[in-house]
Design goal:
With 455 residues, the chain is an alpha/beta fold. The chain is 33% helix and 21% strand. The chain has helices spanning 2-15, 58-77, 88-102, 139-154, 161-171, 173-181, 254-259, 278-287, 348-355, 357-361, 375-391, 395-407, 442-445; strands spanning 32-34, 43-45, 51-52, 106-113, 118-123, 130-134, 186-191, 215-219, 237-241, 268-272, 292-301, 310-312, 317-319, 335-343, 365-369, 412-414, 417-420, 423-426, 448-452. Strands 9, 10, 11, 12, 13, 14, 15 and 19 form an 8-stranded mixed sheet that branches. Helix 1 (2-15) crosses helix 2, helix 4 crosses helix 5 and helix 11 (375-391) packs across helix 12 (395-407). The chain is globular. The protein starts with a helix and ends with a strand.
């Protein structure tokens, strides 16, 4: 309790402002006008310099953020989550140990929106924390630009780049020189309210998407996440799903999706339609330890309490507040995949439900989509992801290579077939005439997000 009170006090002090000089802001570019959402008024933005947070209490501020966010997730899920108590110096050491074990240079980035500014905290392996403040990116500005960006990308619009670039300047550019200096290749993000369902992979620096530079994952907080490396090359997959539902839209590509996972390239068990039940999942898990569980079904994360959000099985829904009853942590699942999610992006509760998936389910990592991608697009990404994961030992790297394959046109549809690194996969008849031949738009690949450990 004392830790949380101290953390909240430090966050309050940060919110009212540390002693920064406003005159140090200098504009270096012409104004960029971003069209607002329907409920907002137009607003213009100027690129401005980030201000260093040279506070002796920076480590305590980060520790306070961790404590505050732990409170938020515990309040939302009505759970008392077990957590670590690592302070920034210990987190830095942990990253250094993982770097030596995996060969990956990983950084943790906290993004904390505040009414008057955006605060960025960065920890790299073996280094002291870095803090930046961007006054231009206050809470209102971030909300407007983020909503505009997500609306455009998730609706296949082509004019998303202005907001993608502006978000990059605010969220990544202030600490990019530090990432480059430390040769960072993997970025773990801890995101505050309003940013927890941002499709980070599609942020753009004017030349490249963020996913072209870094492998990405998001976590609710470092102290709430099991950050460790386990090899998956000999893992077995429990692949389950349904093509038809009583009260929801059909998913005609599911049968092909499951067949593209197991038995080739992955060993495991495939279960379809009527046998896709909660009882069967639990029975299969009792017979054998499946390190990967793939659920090709509807999952909806909506406003309100966790009971409103759910994962659809053939026989019934499992609401988010009961997800832990699936006992996916007994024994621990390394990766839970939900291939047909829909999230109310921009809603605080829906964001927490999505970002807290790994935490609430008890699994190490979750791969899920922020918005529902077309049947053909989902099949394309999922089949390629499992092919990549078989040869790449890290989950975040496998997802990155999959997203690059779609972005660069190496995975596409042609004459009733899906073309990927495995070869050709015949599409189901209902999708054979799909006109979605080109899957390079971020609509198809930026939706899919890794939550939890990148390894």
């Amino acid at each position: 309790m004392l830790k949380k009170i101290i953390g909240q006090l430090l966050l309050f002090l940060l919110a009212i402002g540390l002693s920064f000089t406003i005159n140090s802001f200098v504009s270096h570019s012409p104004t960029i006008a971003i069209a607002p959402s329907a409920a907002a008024k137009p607003i213009a933005y100027n690129e401005q310099k980030a201000i260093d947070i040279n506070s002796e209490n920076l480590s305590n501020l980060i520790y306070g953020v961790e404590g505050k966010w732990e409170d938020q997730y515990e309040e939302y899920f009505q759970e008392d989550f077990a957590s670590l108590s690592l302070k920034p110096r210990q987190i830095s050491q942990k990253l250094l140990e993982i770097s030596e074990e995996t060969g990956k240079k990983t950084a943790v980035l906290w993004l904390l929106p505040q009414p008057e500014a955006l605060n960025l905290f960065l920890i790299t392996p073996g280094k002291e924390p870095i803090g930046k403040q961007i006054r231009e990116a206050n809470e209102r500005s971030l909300t407007i630009v983020t909503q505009e960006f997500v609306e455009k990308v998730s609706n296949l619009a082509n004019n998303y780049l202005p907001s993608a670039r502006l978000l990059y300047k605010w969220l990544i550019a202030p600490i990019e020189s530090d990432l480059q200096a430390e040769k960072i290749d993997t970025l773990i993000t801890c995101l505050g309210v309003g940013l927890r369902t941002l499709p980070l992979a599609a942020l753009h620096d004017g030349e490249h998407f963020l996913v072209e530079k870094y492998s990405l994952t998001r976590i609710p907080g470092f102290n709430l996440s099991p950050i460790s490396y386990t090899k998956l090359n000999n893992a077995k997959v429990l692949a389950m799903g349904a093509t038809d539902f009583k009260n929801q839209a059909s998913l005609p590509a599911v049968e092909v999706e499951l067949s593209a996972i197991s038995p080739n390239p992955w060993q495991g068990v495939t279960i379809l339609n009527q046998e896709f039940t909660v009882a069967n999942l639990q029975a299969q898990r009792q017979r054998e330890s499946f390190e990967i569980v793939h659920l090709a079904t509807h999952a909806d994360f909506v406003p309100g309490i966790p009971r409103n959000s759910y994962i659809q099985f053939f026989d019934r829904k499992v609401t988010l507040d009961r997800l832990n009853r699936l006992k996916l942590n007994e024994p621990p699942v390394e990766l839970l995949v939900l291939s047909a999610c829909q999230t109310a992006v921009g809603d605080r509760d829906a964001e927490m439900g999505f970002a807290g998936l790994a935490l609430q389910s008890g699994v190490k990592s979750v791969l899920a989509s922020l918005w529902y991608v077309s049947d053909a697009g989902t099949l394309a990404l999922m089949s390629e992801f499992y092919q990549q994961l078989k040869t790449i030992p890290f989950k975040a790297d496998a997802l990155r290579q999959t997203q690059l394959a779609l972005l660069q046109g190496r995975v596409y549809l042609q004459q009733g077939e899906l073309i990927n690194s495995r070869g050709e996969i015949a599409l189901p008849s209902v999708l054979a005439n799909s006109k979605e031949n080109n899957l390079s738009h971020p609509f198809y690949w930026a939706s899919f997000t890794l939550i939890g450990s990148p390894w």
